Amino acid sequence: MNPTLAQEELPSRPEPAIASDTALLVREVSKTYHLWSTPASRLWVPLLLRVAHSIPSRPLSNWFASRAHARLHRHEALHSISFTLKRGEALGIIGHNGSGKSTLLQIIAGVLQPTRGTVSVNGRVAALLELGSGFNPELTGRENVRVNAAILGLDPAQIRERMDDILAFADIGSFVDEPVKSYSSGMALRLAFAVQVHTDPDILIVDEALAVGDAAFQAKAMARIDEILSGGTTLLFVGHDLNAVKAFCHRAMLLERGRIILEGLPEEVVTEYLHRTHADALAKQDAGRAKVSALQGGYGLGTACVVGAEVNGTEHIGVQYGEAIRVGLRVQLGQDIRHPGVIVDILDNRGLQLSGKRIRLDPYDGIVEVGLEFAATFQQGVYRIRTRVIDAPSIERTTVLSRQEGMLSFEVVDDRRADFTGVFPLQMDISVRQL
Fold first, then answer.
1. Which of 226, 271, 330, 396 has a CA positioned 20 to 30 A from the CA of residue 154?
2. DSSP state string for 394-413
3. Same domain, 249 and 128
4. Distance of CA 115 to the CA centre of its chain
5. Which of helix, strand or coil describes residue 365?
6. Domain CATH code at residue 365
7. In the prediction, which pLDDT does 3 show?
8. 219 φ, ψ to 5°?
9. Which residue has the higher pLDDT, 200 or 49?
């Protein structure tokens, strides 16, 4: 017998016990949305199902049930999602739009109820989802801060103690005492973000919220997130900023059509995500191209990739500050690549790009040797070299044919913090005058 709507939407089982060192436990979570073919279907479908279950004749009962289900469409946004997040861990969730990322976060935050499965949360949750959606437009910014902070679990004394820090972080000036309906969307987002990150959460849920405000505010937001994490807060991060996933997260998860495709180290998951993205893009651009496949250190086309690479004659080298780094590449090109080129990038140990060089090549059917040399003027640490073979009539029209970054690396062994801060030095003219 076909299940009824009531049977499909039974409440989830009671939450299981959760260990003290576990911040979040998600078990077999699924979410199914019912899409009605017409507004009248909301009335007719439940009625037809009731009639079907009340008729003893199996053929007639099945006929009514089939008529009901023909007017009802189901979209399974999530399918049997399970994972555990320990205290202090940071998990990044990536995937294309529509893969179920935001739905999963909303279920964990308690905004949505799962169709099946359970979510157990251990501690206070701050969810940076749709920032500002809970603000009352008739209240002032200051009044909305009090209301939202109270909802998030702060008592009146804590709110008074943190009010100045929240307002200083939001930096919206005298508008804080004006009704929120007079705010720009950016001002409301900044104020909402400031409230959330000053509640000392045990679990911080971030859904594309680091893109709020201008560049200066984004830098401040990133620094604040880093500060929160250093205090032992658990992070659940969703976003299309893959560098942020690498920078903040200990492990990552790739969602596709509501299912977990891969879970592991951020670098591995990001590589798989980019592999799938580029395979789809190439398939749409040119159905005649060879299929994207796994390569040494990445993925790409067998007719457009790096088949050999070395740094100072080997795969990994330790150097002193300022010593020469010589990179040699053997690039396989195919005759169908009309505007070939190779991009060589230098990445830090988190996978963030520091610099790089775009090198144009002449069309060729075979292997091309490419060499480049630069000085290791970087702070102490390990750095990786990424290569991308491209077909680029112009910078704006660049197609990445292969991407490999697990082949070469170098380590600068000298500590140069007394000479400059950051990753690499800049030429500066310095003057000091006593007054």
1. 226
2. SSSS-EEEEEEEEEEEEEE-
3. yes
4. 25
5. coil
6. 2.70.50.60
7. 40
8. -65, -40
9. 200
Quote the tokens at residue 252.
Answer: 């990552």
Q: What is the DSSP letter of 180?
A: G
Confidence at residue 259, expressed as pLDDT on a 0 to 100 scale: 92
| pTM across the whole model | 0.70
Please report, as a single letter, which amino acid is at residue 273.
Y
Which residue range is the domain that position 368 belongs to? Answer: 291-412
pLDDT of residue 214: 63
Radius of gyration for the alpha carbons in the chain, expressed in angstroms and rounded: 27
Residue pair 26/84 in contact (Cβ under 8 Å)? The answer is yes
Task: Identify the pLDDT of residue 69.
Answer: 66
32 or 329: which leads in pLDDT: 329
> Considering the domain boundaries, does residue 422 fall inside one?
no
Instruction: Say yes or no: 250 and 301 in one domain.
Output: no
CB 345 within 8 A of CB 385: yes
The Cβ-side half-sphere exposure at 332, using a 13 Å CA radius, reads 13
Q: Are residues 362 and 333 in the same domain?
A: yes
Whole-number pLDDT of residue 303? 87
Please name which of 100, 36, 112 lies closest in space to residue 74, comparing C-alpha atoms. 36
Take residue 223 and report the two structure tokens written for it.
């620094």
Residues, the chain, total?
Answer: 435
What sign results for the dihedral spanned by CA atoms 33, 37, 39, 41? negative
d(CA 298, CA 277): 13
Q: Which of 85, 111, 139 is the last residue of a domain?
A: 85
In a shared domain, residues 234 and 335: no
Of the residues 28, 57, 85, the one at which a domain ends:
85
Q: Are residues 16 and 78 in the same domain?
A: yes
Whether 94 is covered by a domain: the verdict is no
Residues 144 and 228 in one domain: yes
Of the ranges 11-20, 29-38, 57-66, 165-174, which one carries the lowest mean pLDDT score? 11-20
Q: Is residue 133 very low, low, confident or very high in pLDDT (cuts 50, 70, 90)?
A: low
Distance (Å, whole) CA 108 – CA 104: 6
